[in-house]
Design goal:
The chain has 223 residues and is an alpha/beta fold. It is 26% helix and 22% strand.
Length: 223
């Protein structure tokens, strides 16, 4: 993996303070919107990495990331999940994790920050072991790329709280707005909420940070 063709984005990898308000969105932001979020009391934004090898139009680019950072928002990155009813396995975890790290590097995201694995909408009847193998293969591939894996726990993730904590390698957990298991002995570092209406012209999910029971926090990029 190389970043030779792309400059690193400005800022440093930092641990998130607790009780900060932010958002995730599948919408490309403008500079005006990013500034409006700062003025509205938001501290951070999460945008998307593509599943394939190479960022797709509509997902996070170097130009958008720099604009978000220049506006004063901290920045995180989460990879798109497959369509509802997908079937995870180890080989897919290697492929998607490798692509997540490659795509992050290609847009100038520095090593050491969290990249988030979205685990939700899995096909009914999928074994917990298949999900565990996918998640841990994704984890290993992202670590190999120099990033710190995090997991977004969504609806139909097919794992119990004990499995999420004991059988996965992750130390960074993000709770979706859906009804999902608690993470025993650790808890979540970020919690998603519902935003009924667009904010600053953007459809978002709201998010808030917290320090988990082991003192862990989200690792993001901030100027």
């Amino acid at each position: 993996m190389t970043t030779s063709s792309t400059s690193l984005l400005p800022g440093t990898v930092q641990s998130a303070a607790p009780n900060l308000k932010g958002f995730d969105t599948n919408t490309v932001l403008t500079a005006k919107q990013a500034t409006a979020f700062i003025q509205s009391g938001y501290s951070f934004c999460l945008r998307y990495l593509s599943r394939g090898n190479g960022q797709q139009p509509g997902d996070l680019s170097y130009a958008e990331a720099k604009m978000i950072l220049d506006a004063g928002l901290a920045l995180g990155a989460v990879q798109h999940v497959s369509a509802q009813g997908w079937s995870p396995n180890a080989a897919l975890g290697i492929a998607y994790g490798t692509n997540a790290a490659h795509n992050a590097a290609s847009i100038g995201l520095p090593q050491g920050m969290n990249l988030w694995c979205d685990v939700e909408g899995i096909k009914t009847g999928t074994s917990a072991q298949s999900v565990i193998e996918y998640c841990n293969a994704w984890y290993d591939s992202v670590v190999a790329g120099g990033y710190v894996p995090g997991i977004y726990v969504g609806a139909n993730c097919m794992l119990t709280g004990d499995q999420l904590y004991n059988n996965l390698k992750f130390q960074h957990y993000w709770k979706s707005m859906s009804s999902v298991p608690d993470i025993p002995n650790r808890g979540y570092q970020m919690v998603q909420g519902y935003a009924k209406h667009p904010v600053n012209g953007v459809y978002i999910d709201s998010d808030s940070t917290q320090t988990d029971q082991k003192g862990g926090a989200v690792l993001w990029l901030k100027v």
